[in-house]
Structure formats: C-alpha cells, structure tokens
Amino acid sequence: MRLGVDLAGLRLKNPLIAASGTFGYGVEYEGILDLSLLGGIVSKGLYLEPRDGCPVPRIVETPSGLLNAIGLQGVGIRAFVKDVLPRLARHDTAVFVNVCGDTVEEYAEVARIADAPGVAALEVNISCPNVKKGGMAFGGDPRMTHEVVSAVRRVTRLPVVPKLSPNVADVTVFAKVCEEAGADALSCINTLLGLAVDVERRVPRLAFGTGGLSGPAIRPVALRMAWQAARAVRIPVIGIGGITTAEDALEFLIAGCRAVQIGTANFVDPGVYERVLEGLAAYLRRHALEDIGDVIGTLRSPSGDEPGGPCA
Amino acid sequence: MPTATSPPAPVNRDVPLVGRQALEGPYVLLTFRHPEVAGRARAGQFVMIKAGTVAEPLLRRPFSVMSVTPRDDTFTLFLKVVGPGSRALADLRSADTAGCLGPLGRPFTLPPEDHEALLVAGGYGIAPFVLFSEELRRAGRRSRVFYGGRTAADLQLRAPFDSGEAPLACSTEDGSLGHCGRVTEPLSTHLDRRGGPATIYACGPDAMLHAVAALAAERGVSAQVSLDPWMGCGVGTCLGCVVRIQRSEDPRAKYRCACTEGPVFDSRDVLWPGEVSSRARRESAAVRG
Q1: Which of A176, B65, B120, B138 has its CA 20 to 30 A from that of A274?
Q2: How far is CA A92 from CA A34, A37, A40, A81, B207, in A?
Q3: In the sheet where A59-62 sits, what is the strand order?
Q4: Same domain, yes or no, for B167 and B99?
Q5: Are B147 and B126 in the same domain?
C-alpha cells in the first residue's frame, strides 16, 4: 500500500503536512510525536526580523472553531535557519518555510535566506488576516499577488507554494495568477476573517479586533475553495481547513487536492497524524486500492455529471 | 522554542478515569491513570485535557496537577465546573477516557533552606498547593497556606491541609469563613510578624496575583506567581497564552508563552496590565532598599 505523493517535484512519504502557525517550528513537538510520521511540516510564518505579534487576548474558541489574531510572532528567518533547521534535519520529513513580508522586497529576501540546505519548499504567506501590512493585503489583490509570487520565484529554485486567502470573491482568479507567476503548487486556504464580541463589555473578544477562523467550522468552505482552485489550475493544490480525521482528509483528496495540511487539530490532539494515517490505510484496504493517488481527484456527482453544474 | 536541554517531553495519551469525588457546589476531584504525569509531575505543572466523550468544546483545557500517586500511576485534578468542557470532564464515568498531554510547564521551585514558604491561593488556585505542600514537607521546608475566596463555598479544598503541618489561614470577603477580607490581609500581617526570611507562592485570579506581587515588592520578598491565561495547545505553538515578561537582563518586555516558560513566573518579571516596564519598578525598589 502506497501513501506517498508527488508534489511539485517533491516526494512526500504521505499527504499529511502540518499547517503553518499550528506546529511552531516543528521542534516543539519533538518527543511528543515522531515527526518522521509526517509528510511535511510548514514553519510558523517568518519575516526577516523577529516579531512580537499582537497584544492579548489572541485566541478565542468559537463553535467548532478557533478565532485567532496572533500577528505572526516569530523568531525571524535567520534564527530559524541557524537554530531550527539543524534540529529538523534529524527527522525524515519535508520542511516547508512559510515566507512573510511587509514589502515585496522583504518576501524576496526572506525567500533567499530560506533557500537553505534542509528546506524542501517555500510557502508564501499572502493571506494572513492579522497583520496591517502584507499578508491578506497582498493576497487580496491579483496584481500584488503576482508581484510577490514572481519576486519569490526569481530568488529560489525551491518549489514555491503561495497560500491563498479565502477572503476573496473568486479564489480561482488568484490560483491562476499564482500559476502564471511561476508557483509550483498552492495551499488552499488560510483562515476566514471573523469577529467575536464580548457582549458584557461590548468589545471584540480579540485585542486585534478581527481574527482568522480555523477548525472544523470552516471545513466545507475550505473544501469548496480547494476544489475550485484544483479545477482552475494545472499545478497541485494542498487542501487546508478543519481537517481532523481521515475522512476529512479524504474529502480534500477526492476533491482534487494532492496533499492536505492539518492545522487546528494539532492543538486538540498532537496524536492526530497517527490516527489519520491509520484511517487512510484502512480506507484504501476497504476500497481495494493500492495507492492513495488512486483516490485523488476522483470526485463524482450522484448523477454522474460533473459537480458544480447547473441544477436540473 | 525548546532548547536541547529541555526536560523530558510531555506524553500524549488517552487516560481512563479511575476515581471521582464530588465536592460541594461546582467542584469535583477527578483521578486519571497516566504513568508519566503520575511519575514526573511537579507542583505548578499542568495537563491539557478534554473528555473523550464530546466533540465540543474543540480544544483541551489546562488544569493544574493537584496531586499524584506514583505507585498507582494516577494523578488527581481539582475541577470547578464553569462551562461545557469542564462539565464534560466532571460527567465522565469510571473507565471513560480523556485525551491528555502532560506534564507541562515549569513548576514552582523550592525556597532556600532557611525560608518559610507562604502559599497564597485564590479559590480554585489552591490546586497546585496540595502537591507543593507535599514537596515542601519532603524537602524539610516550613510552609503555611493562605486560602481566600469570596465566600466559604469557594474554599472547598481544605481537607488536604488538615494535618496542620502547614498552618492554614482562610479568608473570605463576606466573612463566612476565617478572616473577613482579602487573602492578602492575613499575608501582610504575617509578613509583618514573621521572624525570618520567606518566599511567597501564589495561584489564583489575576487581580489577586497582582496584589500579591505588589505586596511582595513592597516588603522585598521574592514571589513566584502561577499565571492562568487562555491556552490553546500547551506546548508553545499556538502562541495564544503569551504574557508580557521583562527579566532583569531584558532591555524590553517580551511576549513569552505561559505554557512553556511558565505558568510559574518570578513576580518581578511580570508586566501587569497598564505597566510599560518592570525596570522602573525594580529601580524604585532598589532605591527603597
């Protein structure tokens, strides 16, 4: 039975990747779980310099979800390359660096430094809703998206994987722009912009005001967008959004995603990878399939037509 | 980020409930089997735990380890039912399981040998002091406990201190038990009367911790405070539980994770709401001598 997948020239041992911002720099989970179980790890978002992030409160739980405004607190790309990469090298898993910037130039400079031995790919964060510059401001404008992705493309030969924002009317526009700008794959999606209010005090429950919603609450929306993106481009799509079980991961794979990222579920139970991998293997056995690739992009409609067509 | 010299990693496992004792009101004692927590947990450390019987709430919640019984591989939590997560835990039946990661965080550290340990608890914050009293006793340190709440019903965990080895001073704001007033009042009186050096340990609501920190600074006594911000993961990856900390070597305050660098902090390093710098406070304390 084969769970490995090919993604933008990388061979991942399985389609499960830890999502940025939910797995620290990976080393926090050393000893808690075997990092070599994972197909890949995406680092917390990294800028050129260390960042403090947002004031507190930064996270609040909502029904089936988590609303956060962390604001990309981080150690900076140089500390990551110097201190973290050597430790991650002990684990057999693909390391993705999540590249951030306040300016196009900063994205390019972070990408240039991140292109270091031990790094498998660069995920380009053009979709964080919790920063005043960069982030979603770039990922919500096709021209800026093109500019950032092209700038990163020019400085690296590593696979470039823009992470798209769901906070747009038509995700396929951005998927196509990224493909044209030289992206090798897409991560779909980042968090949905949300708001929670403390009704007693009549203030937002997060210090930043709004936040990004993640967790099972967003899964159907994320799945729809990943599916739309996968149909719009030839490059592979990594599905993200509320994946907690093997069945959730299978939804994204069947809808056309080459791999998936697990995010908020890491907080709920770091043992999630083992469970999901067992579930994927059990599914393949039950359907008499040899290869997880035989599942990818096999979505049918009940009538036999392509889903998403006009209602009869 | 953990360093190469970090202590043994916490262990993530489904743990069965093996004991349950309802106290008055919303309080309950829950005992689970988890060999690593039972064997390694130190006072002030916590577990992230969630009943396996429910999907909601989504995240595990942090609870201080109240006591451990290594020979049975069990540990006990002191739980106040405040919402659906704690309700689901309190409703577990024998052999039901909970997802549990631990032990987590930095524990209280023992005082110097000649110090008396003054344990200050606000309500629910008494939990870690059951284990800490035991650690202090085994280390041959003298201790006493100041236990405060709004009313007598908030002071449910008095039995573990019945032996009298650590004298227990209760206080309630409504006067229904012990001293009538805030827990810092008998603490302040004791600090005035004490014959020798002391170290303060505090766990409870933020306002109480802030008051204890202020009192400790005023009397030139060192204090370790256990903070309880909202936590998402317990291992330093969600960055949701950060607190503003300024150590003497820090030129400016930094957000540090309460889960991995705390929950126990030196009270002098904590920037309380509205404070810009701990440096000014340190300097004025130094002048007062």
Answers
A1: B65
A2: 10, 8, 9, 17, 47
A3: A59-62, A65-68, A211-214, A192-194
A4: no
A5: yes
pLDDT tens across B227-275, in order?
A: 999 999 999 999 999 999 999 888 889 999 999 999 999 999 999 887 8
**pLDDT > 90 fraction of chain A, expressed in percent and rounded:** 92
- The ipTM (two decimal places) reads 0.94
Contact B58 A24 (CB under 8 A): no
The answer to whether B56 faces chain A, any CB pair under 8 Å, is: yes
Residue A311 has pLDDT above 60, yes or no: no
Report the pLDDT averaged over residues A168-181: 98
pTM reported for the whole predicted model: 0.94
Mutate one of A59, A64, A73, A264 to test the B interface: name it (highest B CB count within 10 A): A59
- Residue where one domain finishes, among candidates B52, B74, B104: B104
Same domain, B63 and B149: no
CB-CB neighbours of A50 under 10 Å = 15
AA letter at A268: V
Site from A34, A51, A90, A268 to mutate, B interface, most B CB atoms within 10 angstroms: A268
Q: In the prediction, which pLDDT does B164 show?
A: 77
Give contacts of A65 with chain B, Cβ < 8 Å: 58
Chain A partners within 8 Å of B1 (Cβ): 24-25, 27-28, 75, 83-84
